[in-house]
Amino acid sequence: MPQPVPARDPGLQPERTRLAWRRTTLACTVAAVLAARQALHRGGSPLSLVAVALSGLVWLGFLVVAHRRIQALSGAARPRVLGVGTAVGAAACAVALACFAVAVLF
Questions:
Q1: Closest alpha carbon to 65 in 45, 84, 39, 43
Q2: Which of 25, 4, 5, 23 is nearest to 78 (CA)?
Q3: Do the Cβ atoms of 15 and 24 come closer than 8 Å?
Q4: Cβ distance 31 to 69 under 8 Å?
Q5: Are residues 75 and 34 in contact, defined by beta-carbon separation less than 8 angstroms?
Q6: What is the 3-state secondary structure (H, E, C) of the chain?
Q7: Are the CB atoms for 99 and 47 separated by under 8 Å?
């Protein structure tokens, strides 16, 4: 006679993943705010102001990606797997923020 399959206990893994997404969002927020502060403190060359504006847009994009992932993790006992588009979007936002931070310095 087959044994019943026990229900999956995800433990604290979904909570740790949610917290990681929140920490990453906080780090992106700090990077965007520091870029704006640096640009305004140095007088705001046209290149740095464009970089700050683009940093804000990229930050908003990352915020949307992170919020969707956090919501996906919060509801189900077995959350869906991270999609390729979400992973690429998050990585692209991180790289773009780094590039714009360098542009603010020049």
A1: 84
A2: 5
A3: no
A4: no
A5: no
A6: CCCCCCCCCCCCHHHHHHHHHHHHHHHHHHHHHHHHHHHHHCCCCHHHHHHHHHHHHHHHHHHHHHHHHHHHHHHCCCCCCCCHHHHHHHHHHHHHHHHHHHHHHC
A7: no
- Kindly report the number of other CB atoms within 10 A of residue 59's CB atom: 22
Q: What local confidence, expressed as pLDDT, does residue 92 receive?
A: 92
pLDDT of the chain along its 106 residues, tens only? 677 665 655 677 778 888 998 999 998 888 888 888 887 877 767 888 888 888 889 999 999 999 988 888 877 667 778 889 889 999 998 899 888 878 877 7
Tokens 């102001």 label which residue? 49
Residue whose pair of structure tokens reads 């999609």 in the numeric block = 83
- Residues 25 and 21: their CA atoms lie apart, in Å, by 6
